[in-house]
Design goal:
Elements: E1 10-11, E2 26-29, H1 33-45, E3 50-53, H2 56-66, E4 70-74, H3 82-91, E5 99-103, E6 117-119, H4 125-150, E7 155-158, H5 164-174, E8 178-184, E9 193-198, E10 201-207, E11 210-211, H6 212-220, E12 225-231, H7 244-260, E13 272-274, H8 287-295, H9 302-308, H10 313-325, E14 329-331, H11 338-351, H12 358-369, E15 378-384, H13 389-397, E16 403-405, H14 407-410, E17 420-428, E18 431-437, H15 445-452, E19 457-462, H16 466-481, E20 488-494, H17 502-507, H18 509-513, E21 517-521, H19 528-539
Parallel strand pairs: 1-7, 2-3, 2-4, 4-5, 5-6, 15-18, 15-19, 19-20, 20-21
Antiparallel strand pairs: 7-12, 8-9, 8-12, 9-10, 10-11, 13-14, 16-17, 17-18
Helix pairs in contact: 1-4, 2-3, 5-7, 6-7, 9-10, 15-16
């Protein structure tokens, strides 16, 4: 990819804005005629030409004839209120570039768009004039970008002076095509962002390993740094279907909400963990909440959960804050350095050397020893969707204290159609688990129910895409799920670099809603007992 920061082109950080590039006329639309006259006089003293209108109808007529660069409008303007006036003018090609300064109303009530501002109704004249000068200066800089892009030249600028919402809005109006690169300039090091635009529409966005809408909304929060736009034909496919107008509105809303609630949101570098056992979690059906809870089985910092979740950062943080308030998760409020965090994770894995806690062991003892004819061990059925799933699971199982694989399993001689015990686990306090491999092939359908009789549960090990793997074990799962006291669990075996995509999560909401889907990274840095503890806690009756 060509780097739009290099080569010939205009650098707007070094270029003085052309003050004649914008229609500097200001239209003041204010039903409070006294305030309107005072503001007009102050603008004239500041060298800003202006006209006034006492109501929305007059302002609309003036705007269409004069095409002002800026409209200062009272939100509850008589006849045609300011939000409606803005909507009409933005839809008209002659006035669509006009900016708005709204006076009064709640934040956002004036339909403020990219490049607009809103002030309280009680704002004094000097504050309003300063805001007018700020908006005119912002439009000057944006026009310089517009002219350079229209000439087909690469152009650079400062994000503190021309923000991403302004840029995307301008590209949309002008139906521009090209690559927009953003470089962050804060204390924290961040990978650059790249946005592909065709005919004014955002097609793709990327920053680091994050892409598309999630990446775009993350870039909206960058207020310091630089941008570089390289006009040109974009042939890449579109991965973002939402209109640019709606993307800008949502991005600005998220940034505003993030700013407003920043003190209440979890710090990105904080530790986070579930307070409850997986089996005690409420039956939550919202896909975002389900995905966050699944990720908490794998990750222990807020940043990791945010980075790996498919939903926008702000939404993930709001969800974690809500779960923290409901005491479903526990968020550490003091950021933890990465080196300390890694050490803590190792310590956790070493200290919690037991797979089950005392209460779980007591329940397993009762389950094993209740009534005559009970088996001397709790039987767990294991079935793999693919030949590789069983060896991967056995590899993790072998790393747990008290687990012993059978010789054939250790030597890799158990085949997909072999019905046999693959290992045992001495969990302590007289509790022993026996793992029995039952083939999923329909040739063995007559023995599925017999094998599952009085089993503690069934683990369906899934390799590859979850939906396809779940379909392969579905006939067996249906039979075993109908047994008395049946308990079935689907375990996605994730190899290094593999992850479940957002589409897969949405396709498998049934498994998520039933709390039967677990993610198990086979080649994780975590100790096997830390990975398997959440799964086996669900197996406990």
């Amino acid at each position: 990819m060509a780097d739009p920061r290099k080569g010939p082109g205009k650098d707007l950080r070094q270029e003085s804005p052309d003050l004649e590039s914008v229609n500097r006329l200001v239209l003041i639309a204010d039903g409070n005629t006294g305030r309107g006259r005072r503001l007009a006089a102050a603008c004239e003293r500041a060298g800003v030409p202006c006209v006034t209108g006492p109501h929305g109808a007059a302002a609309l007529e003036m705007a269409l004839s004069e095409r002002p660069g800026l409209v200062v409008a009272q939100v509850d303007l008589p006849l045609v209120d300011a939000p409606k006036l803005a909507e009409i003018l933005r839809a008209n090609p002659r006035t669509r570039r006009s900016r708005f300064l709204f006076l009064g109303g709640e934040s956002g009530a004036g339909s403020a768009g990219p490049g607009d501002l809103q002030l309280p109704a009680a704002a004094d004249t000097d504050s309003i004039v300063r805001a007018i000068e700020e908006l005119i200066g912002r439009q000057d800089r944006l026009d310089a970008v517009d002219r350079a892009a229209a000439e087909g030249e690469p152009v650079q600028g400062d994000l503190a002076l021309v923000g991403l919402p302004d840029l995307l809005s301008m590209f949309q109006v002008n139906r521009a095509s090209g690559r927009l690169r953003l470089d962050y300039a804060g204390e924290e090091e961040r990978p650059p962002g790249v946005i592909l635009i065709r005919d004014g529409d955002v097609l793709q966005a990327e920053t680091g390993a994050t892409s598309n809408e999630k990446a775009l909304f993350r870039l909206f929060a960058w207020r310091q740094g630089s941008f570089a736009f390289e006009p040109g034909t974009i042939d890449e496919p579109a991965f973002i279907a939402t209109t640019t107008r709606l993307l800008i509105q949502e991005g600005m809303r998220q940034v505003e909400e993030w700013d407003r609630l920043s003190t209440k949101l979890p710090p990105l570098d904080a530790r986070v963990k579930l307070r409850l056992r997986s089996g005690d979690l409420p039956n939550i059906v919202h896909p975002l909440t389900q995905e966050v809870l699944l990720l908490l089985e794998l990750y222990s910092s807020v940043r990791e959960v945010v980075d790996h979740c498919s939903f926008p950062d702000y939404q993930v943080l709001r969800t974690l804050a809500t779960l923290d308030d409901r005491e479903i998760v526990e968020v550490g409020r003091v950021p933890v350095p990465s080196s300390v965090q890694a050490h803590s994770e190792d310590a956790d894995a070493g200290d919690l050397h037991a797979l089950f806690n005392d209460a779980q062991l007591r329940r397993l003892q009762e389950w094993i020893g209740t009534g005559p004819g009970e088996p001397p061990a709790a039987k767990l059925i294991v079935a793999g969707s693919d030949p590789e799933a069983l060896p991967d699971f056995a590899f993790l199982l072998s790393g747990i204290p008290g687990a012993v694989l059978t010789p054939r399993m250790r030597e890799g001689r158990v085949r997909p159609n072999d019905l046999e015990t693959i290992g045992t686990l001495d969990a302590g306090s007289g509790v022993r688990l026996e793992f029995v491999h039952v083939p999923r092939s329909e040739l063995f359908a007559p023995i599925w129910a017999l094998a599952g009789h009085r089993a503690l549960g069934t683990l369906f090990l899934l390799n590859g895409r979850v939906a396809e793997a779940a379909d392969r074990v579905a006939p067996m799962a249906e039979v075993l799920s109908d047994l008395p006291r049946a308990r079935t669990f689907h375990v996605a075996m994730l190899r290094k670099g593999e992850r479940i995509s957002p589409d897969e999560l949405r396709e498998n909401l049934t498994l998520i809603d039933e709390a039967s889907l677990f993610l198990l990274p086979v080649e994780s840095a975590k100790a096997p007992i830390a990975l398997l503890r959440g799964l086996f806690s669900r197996v406990v009756p």
